Amino acid sequence: MKQTGKILAGVLLAVLLLTGIKNEYARLLPVSSYGMQAAIRKKSIDHLFIGSSMFRQGLSIDVLEEELEGNVYILSYNGNQPAFMAMELEYMLEEGLEIGTLYVDLYPYTAAAAPWISDTKILLDTDLGFKLDAWKLMNACSDTKFLDFYELFVTANNEQILTYPIHNRLVSAQFRNGGNILTPGGQTKEHLDSLGMLGGRDGLKETQVKGYERILELAKEHGIQVCFIETPKYERMYQDADYMELYEACTDKIRRLAETQGATSLKGADERKRTGEGSRENGEAGTKVKMILAEELAFDFGDAACFQDLIHLSAEGRTWYTKLLCERLAE
User: For residues 17 and 10, what is the distance between their CA atoms, to the nearest angstrom?
Assistant: First the structure.
């Protein structure tokens, strides 16, 4: 009986040791062309795009590298939320990454969600301290359970680590400088019109708003220019009252937060249309904040071939949109 107890204690100790090693040191594995560690090891990035699958599916790395002066990197995780974008930005800055201009994903639904890590690949890129801070945030704002903790710290990404050489090669074949180089096709109007809407939300979450605020604070501290970018959604999304209410609340909140960082607030799209002005810049101490909404660009939101679903662009759509975006940035 004592021997069995010793064996069980040894197994438990080994599991705890391996779990600690994974959570602290998995980030030191040779990096591919995706994620935070690949960005950090560049040491300096002129144009860093940070966001969710909206950026991964909505931005063409080919076009960005061709049109923008300097190097480009896209950091995207599925369901990435403002609260975690702020944590990711702070983590990379603490690791010594220098950033010229930061482009932040403006997707209202992520700002209306309780803090949660949807894409556990973020855990492969960070140390134990980051994971503990993420768990504290999730635990404070969501109904977490022990199984959530167990998945976050024990089981997440084990298969990727065990098959690392193969997994890393597969990831590298799909991304370049964080940008998706796969070419997903578009849909038909009939298919997109048959999809259910994404439903309403209970308004912006204060924790996510604080994420936007922290991003602006960090940018100001480090002299980083910031541009909030909304990628196009299919026309039905802009006709949905629930989505538009959240969309307007989110853009208004970002404008108000930006105003606290400088002398001039960002104007809303409707006001820009009335005055004939483009995106306003907001500057103080060398830091500028800009917002570019999809509706400002000459993109066809009803062209089904440009969309994979109601919110994600196809390869054709992201190429067209990114060209329009770069033209606006050049202005």
Answer: 10
Can you tell me the distance from the alpha carbon of 77 to that of 189, in angstroms, rounded to the nearest whole number? 28
Contact 184, 314 (CB under 8 A): yes
C-alpha 183/C-alpha 133 separation (Å) is 36
DSSP helix/strand/coil, 125: helix
> How many CA atoms, within 13 angstroms, populate the side-chain half-sphere of residue 92?
31
Q: Which of 121, 313, 112, 282 is nearest to 204 (CA)?
A: 112
pLDDT in tens, 97-107: 999 999 999 99
CA atoms within 13 A on the CB side of 324: 20
Taking CA atoms, 6 is separated from 2, 3, 10, 53, 83, in Å, by 6, 5, 6, 47, 43
CA Rg, the chain, in Å? 21
- Which residues lie below 8 Å from residue 325, measured CB to CB, with a gap of 6+? 59, 229, 292, 297
Sheet with 72-76, strands from edge to edge, namely: 72-76, 44-51, 98-105, 225-229, 287-292, 282-284
Please write the tens of the pLDDT for every residue from 26-65.
787 877 789 999 999 999 999 999 999 999 999 999 999 9
Q: Please tell me the pTM assigned to this model.
A: 0.89
**CA atoms in the 13 A half-sphere facing the CB of 127:** 6
SS3 per residue for 293-304: CHHHCCCCCCCH
Query: Could you give the C-alpha distances from 150 to 22, 125, 126, in angstroms and in order?
Result: 13, 18, 17
Burial class (CB in 10 A: 0-12, 13-18, 19+), 169: exposed
3-state class (DSSP) for residue 99: strand
Rounded-to-integer distance, Cα 113 and Cα 198, Å: 13
Structure tokens at 66: 């061709």
Q: Which helix (H) or strand (E) holds 103?
A: strand 98-105
Q: Are 216 and 289 in contact (CB under 8 A)?
A: yes
